[in-house]
Write a structure and sequence with these properties.
heterotrimer; A alpha/beta; B alpha+beta; C mainly alpha; B: alpha+beta; two-stranded antiparallel sheet; 14% strand; C: mainly alpha; two-stranded antiparallel ribbon; 78% helix; 1% strand
Chain lengths: 341, 387, 329
């Protein structure tokens, strides 16, 4: 591909978010770095507990106490009123005062977040419509009536039937798929440049999953926004992502365009993940290939490379002593492993 | 606590070139439910301290006779309304507690008794001194008390740690005996409420249906009625000629009749939530009888909650009895409870002159606080698997 | 929603019935026949009751007939507004009670109101700023309220007021307005005297409500919709008040109904200690003097008043929570 220097939309460098608790410090995110380009879809993959959600929340500054960002940069390019080709000013989100006016102006308006559980993500006693209207009125200079009109329009856009009625219903009156659509409507109501989707389809059945993913792709095409898709489902990643970052125990171990990840994975963990996917065409009674061992307890992190106790290509003396860093092994392909020094 | 080493997952040999690290061995620590509860409880320093306080109070219940030094019923007008005495701990440089003798006289203008300490007469205080006769633990006759006075003097006439009441009776000794009655009424009452609460709450929660609706409505009705007017009415109706013991039990029954509702609600709530649990359903499917399901499977799950709820119900009982006796409708003299002792402190004028009459309020407050903290700690620790 | 209110009203009626039975029991408990004692009393005052009058009284009260008949006759008398005669005061019970019942209402309601006004903000603050100094102070004050029985608190405050400030805290009116007819000045005087009894009465309830509010809010604050609201860009204060507080209020509101009986109950003893001209001191004297119609009527009226108050708060609860409105649970 030609060296098209598109300015990055979001650039995370060495992000560290720790949870300081009585029993010890949990290093949920321990040095995560990745880049996200406008209009692209970055899939963040990993097992439960590897720090994907905490990364997403760190970006918006909504990590639950006692978690805190202790180090790193989150450089985000803000929108400006004019449509300048190289975008607006770059802000380090990690350095903004927590819950201050600037980060709040970005939340919802420029970076939006949708969650895994749409049921509990809506307030059970407020109507769906009022919650979307609230988002609109927070960031746009419109009155309530106009906001309501935009809400209904947004609901229609995401495929909610009878939006005029649904807007006044409570979230428990909608089905799972509809709720997730309403959630997407709320997130996109202010036309953000980045949508972070934290396991958006995990709680849905397969048919609804497909519909929601298709909806997200369509909206992305129409609005040109970037999507950061967090999931543990490699199938979803294959369908949606342009780039993939693989995380393990709070670190990015490999990042590459989606084709590279699936056809030429370099990191032993990525390879093990791909190997463990059951195949449709496998012979009967063929054994599944789990990854040996289990994810270590957060208080009990291994020394050196976090994956070394489970790594089939473990090199004694090296892997358990030093921590590898991300190195480039190809065009936009980085790996964090001593096999590629 | 067992610490077996257990191997998990595929062994190292099955993966080509697998790491030599001990990924396949993990140590498992095992602790029983009660151990978990104890550890969680231990972390609440306040709850543990409260447990000690409560224990201390019940020691007083057992050893009231020993801790008192004067016969609590010995009244003498000459000692009426004496203020608390100062105990001096050091005689010169030695540790030798003593008090000054107190002389009383009637003020000719106000006709009230006025007391002056006489610094010329030192009366040494002895530990394990002799005093009035009693039976230690109800069995061993003895005259030894915690403190007494030397030299053939009567402790009742010389030491007044907390002063005396209108009839000249030593307040400290009365307080010791009063503790005995106040704290045991609480126990008896709570037991009755516990039985009523568990039975009715259990019926309600386990069987549901009509029994549940009926019992629920009864509980709601009882909760909407202001209790004190009712208690007052029922207590006032007790015949004047009943013995202390009869009055004691009657009061306990009256208080318990309204207090079981809280425990019933807790028990019912637990049964309701447990009924739907998978382990209960599977117990029935395996063929356990209803009795067995209840007692072997369900009850252990909420024992701890019951204990916590009971502990929290105790202070309410104690306060109720204190209130009734304070009004003169509960226990009557010569019975002694904190409430009876506080009867003397009913109006401001009396209290303004003799503020020590309010002292029985202190153990009430301390015990209520201690039981509340203890109950809170137990409640938090009650579910070691939950949040 | 109407079905819900209907059910609560039905329950209230049953409760009133239960209270009336209990009050009747209290009236009947002391040994002896009412009319006989009445005659004896009248005789001791030097007035004579004719046989005819005695007979009428006997019929009126159904004496000598089965208990339930007596009960029904008593209920009928009450329906006519006749609550019986107070033996001690020798006047109709209603006259003796007079304005005291309304004053009891005033004190109880202001205690309830105070409970709310104090518990809500303190509870919210405690939950949001957990483990802060304010949280501990609030919890501590709460514990004082729970641990110190209200009548003891009243006693201690009286003593302190008397000795430290030489002020007489008790009473609901200044001496000169005590027996005066109602006027604006009297109302204002009452309002000035209400805060202390209301505070003493309400403190225990406040403590409990603070704990409930704090626990509820802590639960709600953990929930996902709070994170959603934050991710939309709301300020902390706005999002806390609009969402989790709103949800934590529901179970909180339903507890008010049960605070009222407790407050009314407590007002009896506290008014004794503080010397308030409410129903409390009157009840005690009536019981000691075995003036049973007065005592029984007071118990009945107190109970009914409480039930009505609870019903009102239940209706308010339904108005507050739309979920109950939509689902007829």
């Amino acid at each position: 591909m030609a060296a098209e220097v598109r300015p990055t939309l979001l650039s995370v460098r060495d992000l560290k978010t720790y949870f300081m608790q009585d029993e010890g410090t949990v290093k949920a995110v321990d040095g995560v770095s990745f880049d996200l380009y406008p209009g692209a879809t970055l899939g963040i993959v990993g097992e439960s507990g590897c720090g994907k959600s905490v990364t997403a929340r760190s970006i918006l500054g909504i990590v639950d106490r006692p978690g805190r960002i202790v180090d790193g940069e989150i450089r985000f390019r803000r929108q400006t009123a004019t449509d300048a080709a190289d975008g607006g000013p770059v802000v380090d989100l990690a350095k903004l005062p927590p819950n201050g006016p600037e980060i709040r102006a970005i939340r919802g308006a420029e970076i939006a977040l949708i969650f895994q559980e749409p049921m509990s993500s809506f307030s059970p006693v407020h109507t769906v419509g009022s919650q979307i209207v609230e988002a609109i009125m927070l960031h746009q200079q419109v009155d309530r009536r106009q906001a309501r009109v935009r809400t209904i329009e947004m609901l229609r856009r995401v495929g909610v039937s009878s939006p005029g009625q649904r807007v006044d219903q409570l979230s428990n009156q909608l089905s799972g798929g509809l709720r997730q659509r309403a959630m997407i409507a709320m997130a996109l109501s202010c036309h953000p440049t980045l949508l972070i989707a934290d396991e958006p389809t995990t709680a849905l059945d397969v048919t609804t999953q497909t519909q929601i993913l298709e909806l997200m792709r369509q909206l992305q095409r129409e609005d040109g926004m970037a999507i950061m898709l967090i999931t543990h489902d490699l199938g979803v990643v294959a369908e949606m992502a342009t780039d993939v970052a693989v995380m393990y125990l709070g670190r990015v171990v490999e990042q590459a365009p989606v084709d590279e990840i699936f056809h030429a994975p370099r990191h032993p963990y990525t390879q093990a993940l791909l190997r463990s996917i059951p195949r449709m065409r496998s012979r009967s009674r063929e054994r599944l290939n789990p990854i040996a061992g289990a994810v270590p307890h957060p208080y009990d992190r291994p020394s050196g490379c976090p994956f070394h106790p489970r790594c089939p290509q473990f090199m004694a003396g090296r892997c358990d002593a030093e921590e590898p860093t991300l190195r480039s092994v190809g065009d936009k392909h980085t790996v964090s492993c001593f096999l590629y020094p | 606590m067992a610490t077996p080493d257990v191997a998990l997952g595929p062994t190292s040999a099955s993966l080509p070139g697998a790491g030599a690290a001990d990924v396949n061995k993990q140590r498992i620590f095992v602790a029983s439910q009660w151990q978990l509860m104890w550890w969680r409880f231990r972390r609440h320093k306040v709850a543990v301290a409260s447990a000690l306080v409560v224990f201390g109070f019940y020691l007083v219940v057992v050893g009231a006779d020993f801790l008192a030094y004067a016969d609590p019923n010995a009244s003498e007008a000459q000692r009426s309304l004496m203020p608390p005495q100062r105990v001096h701990l050091f005689d010169g440089w030695r540790f030798g507690p003593y008090v000054y003798a107190v002389k009383g006289a009637r003020d000719l203008q106000s006709f009230k008794r006025v007391y002056r300490t006489d610094p010329s007469e030192k009366i040494p205080v002895r530990f394990f001194g002799k005093g009035f006769k009693y039976r230690l633990l109800g069995l061993i006759p003895t005259t030894r008390h915690l403190i007494g006075v030397d030299g053939g003097r009567d402790a009742a006439k010389t030491i007044f740690l907390l002063g005396t009441d209108v009839q000249g009776r030593d307040l400290w000794s009365r307080l010791m005996y009063g503790t005995r009655i106040s704290l045991t009424i609480g126990l008896v009452g709570v037991t009755m409420s516990l039985v009523l609460g568990v039975v009715l709450g259990g019926l309600s929660g386990f069987y549901g249906g009509i029994a549940d609706t009926l019992i629920q409505r009864i509980i709601e009705i009882l909760r909407s009625i202001p209790t004190i007017p009712l208690w007052m009415g029922l207590a006032a109706a007790l015949p004047r000629d009943w013995s202390i013991l009869q009055v004691y039990f009657a009061i306990t029954i009256i208080i318990s009749l309204l207090a079981w509702t809280e425990l019933a609600r807790v028990v019912r709530g637990r049964f309701l939530s447990l009924r739907e649990e998978d382990f209960v359903v599977s117990a029935r499917l395996v063929g356990c009888s209803q009795m067995r399901t209840i007692f072997v499977h369900m009850v252990p799950s909420f024992m701890s909650h019951i204990i916590a709820a009971t502990t929290l119900a105790l202070p309410a009982m104690i306060v109720s009895e204190t209130a009734l006796s304070f009004l003169g409708l509960g226990l009557r003299p010569p019975a002694m409870s904190w409430g009876v002792l506080l009867q003397q402190a009913q109006n401001v004028q009396t209290v303004a002159i003799s503020p020590w009459l309010m002292l029985p309020a202190v153990p009430v407050i301390v015990v209520v606080m201690a039981f509340n903290f203890l109950g809170d700690g137990l409640r938090d620790a009650a579910d070691p698997y939950g949040r | 929603m109407l079905a819900y209110i209907g059910r609560r009203a039905l329950l209230a009626i049953f409760t009133v019935w239960a209270i009336s039975v209990l009050s009747f029991v209290i009236i009947q408990l002391p040994p002896g026949d009412y009319v006989t004692s009445y005659i004896a009393q009248m005789a001791s005052m030097g007035s004579v009751v004719t046989d005819e009058e005695a007979q009428n009284l006997r019929i009126q009260y159904g004496l000598g007939q089965p208990i339930y008949v007596q009960y029904l006759k008593w209920m009928r008398l009450i329906a006519q507004g006749n609550f019986g005669m107070s033996m001690e005061w020798r006047r109709p019970v209603t006259e003796v009670i007079g304005e005291r019942l309304w004053l009891t209402v005033a004190v109880s309601v202001s205690a309830l109101f105070l409970t709310w006004v104090l518990a809500l903000p303190i509870g919210i603050y405690s939950a949001v700023r957990q483990y802060s100094v304010g949280d501990y102070v609030g919890t501590f004050v709460g514990f004082i309220g729970l641990a110190v029985p209200n009548f003891l608190l009243a006693l201690v405050l009286l003593y302190l007021g008397f000795t430290l400030f030489n002020a007489h805290i008790g009473g609901l009116f200044s001496p000169d307005l005590q027996d005066a007819p109602w006027s604006m000045a009297r109302v204002w005087d009452l309002l000035k005297h209400l805060p202390i009894p209301a505070l003493i009465l309400g403190l225990a309830g406040t403590a409990q409500q603070i704990r409930i509010m704090r626990a509820n809010l802590l639960d709600e604050l953990r929930k996902p919709y709070v994170v959603t609201a934050r991710s939309k860009g709301l300020t902390e204060m706005a999002l806390i008040l609009r969402y989790p507080v709103r949800l934590a209020l529901n179970p909180f509101a339903s507890t008010i109904g049960y605070t009222l009986p407790y407050i009314v109950s407590g007002s009896i003893i506290v008014s004794l200690v503080l010397g308030l001209p409410t129903v409390g001191p009157l009840l005690l004297k009536a019981l000691i003097a075995q003036d049973m119609f007065l005592a029984g009527t007071i118990v009945l009226l107190l109970g009914v008043m409480t039930v009505i108050g609870t019903l009102v708060s239940d209706i308010l609860l339904v108005w507050v929570d739309p979920r109950i409105r939509l689902e007829e649970t």
